[in-house]
């Protein structure tokens, strides 16, 4: 058995782990990076990048189908599933290679292969070959797709999103369980590529949306395009011939058994914590078994253990994983001198069509009566109609009294760009009035944002009883 004594040990070489390693090293510390699973980040291997490659192919097919509305007529549409998946895998491998090259530049003496588990708060056992003693430790083990137990009998026809990107060809049909980010993105992309798709959602939630008005707009839009079954409970799945018999119950209590070629479990991911032996630690855990931590320092209690990335279960997004890793590694490197790091305005984007985005504080988390809502429909928005992308709804939230912009939820064209503008405004604590003083070109989709801001501004001025609206007694005026 080998023994390795270091200042900082980082468990996991994904986005958060690599950021933590670099941050800890910047303090001149002796750092070891431990990885037991496949090298390459979740984003590059099975997440952001391969999914966007599949979506790009779907967008191309959809554009051809939409062209006649502009008076443009191409030949018969032919979708080559094998060619699509070959490009997805080839480009995916290229992205992964870039990550691996970065890992390989880390000195070999700072890399350790194997799965780590805690012996104590300052000691790790890595497989059966090495004990690592460290003054501080960063947990950055990522997450894995969740497999609902009711789908277990689907056997080899049960898939998770990771497996989609290993396909040699597109399937004929698939049931997507979950209307979250993964379900919406992959479900719609496969539908547009000619796969018979049904998306099943347990409730009325769609992706990160919590605003009922925006959520209803999204449900209507996606329901018009593909087979979307919300408020549907999956009761079981059985391997059946060349596919799966899926048993469900709708909101009216009606049960169905339907046949699909495959079932894709897209109902979320779970933190990779099971094999870490957290019971050997004195740190507190939440109801999911995830270590409780300070989101601004990533420290678990007052210990020398820090947590970062998808494993924290807080904001499972690449840019958040990088920030959390940087903060955790920085504090692990200077431990016990722990400091608050920069946490940016929440920003969540779903690359379906129309896109979905959420910025800042969600509708669900805002205090009723404390904010005004401004909205715009994209149905009659000029540039959106020009492009035949006039679908969706944007709602912005502004604080009564101060007029400060708090957040927004939307589904609409080019939402990824609107969301960035709004996130920057939110992080800079801009008011609705200050945002309306910014330039708006014509004709652009951002003019729709201006309409929503004007609507919010009008409600801030006129939407309250007079006694609450007076300048002498309203906070922030």
Chart the SSEs and their pairings.
Blueprint: E1 2-11, H1 15-25, E2 31-35, H2 42-46, H3 48-66, H4 81-104, E3 111-113, E4 116-120, E5 123-126, E6 130-139, E7 143-145, E8 158-160, H5 161-164, E9 173-177, H6 181-192, E10 196-200, H7 212-225, E11 227-229, E12 233-240, E13 243-249, E14 255-260, E15 262-265, E16 269-271, E17 305-307, H8 318-334, E18 347-350, E19 355-360, E20 371-377, H9 382-386, E21 393-399, E22 405-412, H10 415-427, H11 432-436, H12 446-462, H13 466-469
Parallel strand pairs: 1-2, 1-6, 2-3, 6-17, 8-15, 9-10, 9-15, 10-11
Antiparallel strand pairs: 4-5, 5-6, 7-16, 12-13, 13-14, 18-19, 19-22, 20-21, 21-22
Helix pairs in contact: 1-8, 3-4, 3-6
Q: Care to describe what's here?
A:
With 477 residues, the chain is α/β, with parallel strands linked by helices. It starts with a strand and ends in an 8-residue tail after the last helix. It folds into 3 domains: 2-144 and 270-334, 3-Layer(bba) Sandwich (FAD/NAD(P)-binding domain); 149-267, FAD/NAD(P)-binding domain; 347-469, 2-Layer Sandwich (Enolase-like, domain 1). It has 13 helices and 22 strands. Helix 1 (15-25) packs parallel to helix 8 and helix 3 packs antiparallel against helix 4 (81-104). It has helices spanning 15-25, 42-46, 48-66, 81-104, 161-164, 181-192, 212-225, 318-334, 382-386, 415-427, 432-436, 446-462, 466-469; strands spanning 2-11, 31-35, 111-113, 116-120, 123-126, 130-139, 143-145, 158-160, 173-177, 196-200, 227-229, 233-240, 243-249, 255-260, 262-265, 269-271, 305-307, 347-350, 355-360, 371-377, 393-399, 405-412. The strands form 5 sheets. Strands 1, 2, 3, 4, 5, 6 and 17 form a 7-stranded mixed sheet that branches. The protein has a 5-stranded parallel sheet with strand order 8-15-9-10-11.
């Amino acid at each position: 058995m080998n023994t390795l004594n270091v200042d900082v040990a980082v468990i996991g070489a994904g986005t958060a782990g690599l950021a933590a390693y670099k941050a800890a090293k910047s303090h001149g510390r002796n750092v070891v990076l431990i990885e037991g699973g496949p090298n390459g980040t979740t984003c590059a291997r099975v997440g952001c990048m391969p999914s966007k490659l599949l979506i790009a192919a779907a967008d191309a097919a959809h554009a051809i189908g939409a062209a006649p509305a502009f008076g443009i007529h191409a030949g018969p549409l032919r979708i080559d599933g094998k060619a699509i998946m070959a490009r997805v895998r080839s480009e995916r491998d290229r992205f992964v290679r870039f990550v691996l090259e970065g890992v390989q530049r880390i000195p070999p003496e700072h890399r350790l292969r194997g799965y780590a588990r805690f012996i104590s708060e300052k000691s790790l056992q890595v497989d059966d070959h090495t004990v690592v003693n460290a003054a501080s430790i960063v947990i950055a083990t990522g997450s894995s797709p969740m497999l609902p137990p009711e789908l277990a009998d689907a056997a080899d026809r049960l898939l998770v999103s990771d497996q989609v990107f290993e396909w040699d060809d597109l399937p004929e049909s698939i049931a997507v369980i979950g209307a979250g980010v993964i379900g919406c993105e992959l479900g719609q992309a496969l539908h547009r590529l000619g796969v018979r798709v049904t998306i099943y959602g347990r409730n009325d939630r769609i992706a990160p949306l919590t605003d009922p008005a925006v959520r209803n707009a999204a449900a209507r839009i996606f329901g018009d395009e593909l087979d979307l079954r919300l408020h549907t409970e999956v009761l079981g799945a059985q391997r059946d011939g060349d596919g799966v018999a899926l048993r469900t119950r709708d909101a009216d209590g009606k049960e169905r058994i339907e046949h699909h070629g495959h079932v894709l479990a897209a109902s979320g991911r779970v933190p990779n914590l099971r094999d870490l032996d957290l019971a050997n630690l004195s740190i507190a855990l939440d109801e999911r078994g995830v270590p409780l931590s300070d989101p601004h320092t990533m420290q678990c209690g007052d210990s020398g253990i820090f947590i970062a990335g998808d494993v924290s279960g807080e904001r499972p997004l690449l840019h958040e994983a990088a920030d959390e890793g940087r903060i955790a590694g920085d504090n692990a490197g200077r431990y016990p001198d722990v400091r608050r790091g920069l946490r940016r305005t929440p920003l969540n984007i779903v690359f379906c069509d129309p896109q979905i985005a959420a910025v800042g504080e969600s509708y669900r988390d805002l205090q009723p009566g404390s904010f005004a809502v401004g909205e715009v429909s994209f149905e009659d928005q000029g540039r959106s109609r020009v492009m035949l992308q006039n679908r969706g709804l944007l709602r912005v939230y502004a604080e009564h009294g101060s007029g400060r912009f708090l957040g927004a939820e939307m589904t609409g064209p080019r939402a990824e760009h609107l969301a960035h503008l709004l996130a920057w405004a939110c992080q800079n604590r801009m008011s609705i009035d200050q945002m309306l003083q910014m330039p708006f070109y014509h004709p652009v989709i951002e003019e729709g944002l201006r309409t929503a801001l004007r609507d919010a501004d009008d409600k801030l001025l006129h939407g309250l009883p007079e006694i609450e609206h007076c300048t002498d007694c309203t906070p922030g005026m």
